[in-house]
Amino acid sequence: MARHIYSCPLRWSDMDAFGHVNNVVFLRYLEEARIDFMFRLAPGDGSPSFAGGSVVARHEIDYLRPLVHRHRPVTVESWVTKIGAASLTIAYEVKDPEQVYVRASTVVVPYNLAEERPRRISAEEKLFLQEYLAEEPAAV
């Protein structure tokens, strides 16, 4: 399984009064990594995959340790944990080599903006996503 790696800069405005990255800012970091993964790395030259839009159906975040401002970016690793007919789940770790700050997941629903409704995941999209799909744990 491959993981998408995104180098995310920290901004001075990301900090809260306590001197660490505000909890809501982590959602922006996840969004930046997800957009980079789904749109910039989407398959095919000129492919319409993922370009028609998507909506977030759910976020789940575990804050493990505070992240303080520094000039070096933080790494956001992303991978796919579930591919359904009309949704997918992306997992993330916001981290440095020596520690993880946040573990999170997002349920994303492909969306047809012109028709204003969810749509199914295309065969091309599924093929792309499967490269990042976490292997199922061994049955006990």
UniProtKB/TrEMBL annotation:
UniProt KW Phosphoprotein keyword: no
Top-rank taxon: Bacteria
Pfam families: 4HBT_2 (PF13279)
UniProt key word Cell cycle: no
Gene Ontology MF term list: hydrolase activity
Enzyme class: hydrolase
Keywords, sorted A to Z: Hydrolase
Enzyme Commission number(s): 3.1.2.-
SUPFAM superfamilies, per the entry: Thioesterase/thiol ester dehydrase-isomerase
TM regions (residue ranges): none
PANTHER family the UniProt entry points to: 4-HYDROXYBENZOYL-COA THIOESTERASE FAMILY MEMBER, LONG-CHAIN ACYL-COA THIOESTERASE FADM
Protein name: Thioesterase family protein
